[in-house]
Specification:
The chain is 76% helix and 5% strand. By secondary structure, the chain is mainly α.
Length: 110
Amino acid sequence: MEMFVAWLVSALVIFVLASFLPGITVANFLTALAVALVMGLVNAVIKPVLIILTLPVNILTLGLFTLVINAFLVILVAAIVPGFQVTSFWSALIFSVILSLAMSLVSKKD
């Protein structure tokens, strides 16, 4: 049940972010649900592999290269999910940072 709620909250955050961030477009809430699902799968499967492959660069940049990886994963999700568009790398970077912050605030357990 918690996973379902987290998925819905993630979709809601994605839908709200797309409404005020320039360069991010989500067609409707159903698309936001699909984006949240695909983003979760991509973060679970592809992101750990990319983190390991880019470990030397990540160490040199003190972990900041992870932000670049997150932005490219958002662009990948935009290529997979129809109705979700990202116009630039910078839009994807800002979107991924705000989404990560929002989801960490929502999932914070006391």
